[in-house]
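Notes, p. 3: input format for complexes.
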Amino acid sequence: MWFSLFIVALAALVALHFWWRAKFRSQHSEQTTELDNFQRRQQETSVEAKAQQQVIFNSMLEGLLLLDRQRKIYLSNRAFNSFFNLPNELRGKTIVEALRLHELDDLLGRVESEQQVFGYEFKLPGFSERWLQVNAAVITNSAGEREGTILVFHDLTRLKQLERQREEFVANVSHELRTPLSLIKGYVETLLDGARDNPEVAERFLKIIERNTDRLDFLIQDLLTISALESGRMKLDLQPVNLPGLVEKVFAHLHTKAENKNVQLVNELSETTIQADANRLDQVLTNLLDNAIKYGRASGQVVVGANRLTTGKLELFVRDDGPGIPAEALERVFERFYRVDKARSREQGGTGLGLAIVKHIVQAHGGEVWAKSDLGKGTTFFFTLPTVE
Ligand code: ADP
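Output follows (389 residues plus adenosine-5'-diphosphate):
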């Protein structure tokens, strides 16, 4: 009897044991699956977050570089790689290995000792001029230990170019103003020193003074026009303009100049109306025709004509039969103060701004301007303008 009871109790214990194990296993496997899912979800989220981070970093205009504690590249974005023309995968390399730029490696030393460096500017070696500015800082953990370094690169090239242009412009303007001013001062002093007692000499000197004050006046007028055009302050007053009529008006204005050099002015334009600002267009034609007379041949011919383009625009031209412009200067003549022959331009009272003004006005009308030349045979300036149907 006791034995049978013992057997039944033992069987019950064994059954209880197996039931409990089975239950524990299923609970454990449920828990494990949950844990697996949780870890997978976390991994997925972190992969997703990393991908998102990469997308954000790659869409930045600034170059971004993250270095680890050993100064090895941990992450670089697209802008950084393209600044330095580097392949996409740079992970694990040092700055010197990846860029061969010891200057940046030295900068890293500075960042590590000073914690951060702002506004460090440097020029990239190579043919085309490229300037970058770096802001860099050490990344520390909660214990204050250095974990790595972050460097952000800004492209300064455009800013540097503008800065240089501005400096050149100021230097050129000062030079252009100083030349007539010192001439005026010199002749005034000579007159005061006694030259005024000789009427012939006095007359000659006063004429030189007058010519140079005119030059100053032209220069200031041109500077004001350029400044208004470049700042966008000058608004165009677009109206239908009768082109051959306007050209005749400009011819009349330049008549004496042309006659003095025995230059024949020819208007080949047929009846055409265009949509333009008449005063500004007058300025364009005056500058081009004035140049054609000034730099053209004595007893030569200057022609104004037009071709209608398939685009609906009108291509106007001013052609002379003078000595021409060398090929390498054909684009540069539109730059402010660029002259092929400086002495000749100054002697003719040129400001060096005429063609820069022409370019601005034509572009403001939605057109283009360019020049073609055959050395020894002549130059033709072309520009396009919209027509009125
Ligand atoms: P400038 O006041 O010196 O005439 P522009 O801007 O009008 O200034 O012209 C720039 C330079 O282009 C001139 O100095 C001259 O060397 C050259 N140039 C312009 N037009 C002609 C032309 N028709 N033939 C030859 N050279 C020209």
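The longest strand covers residues 131-140.
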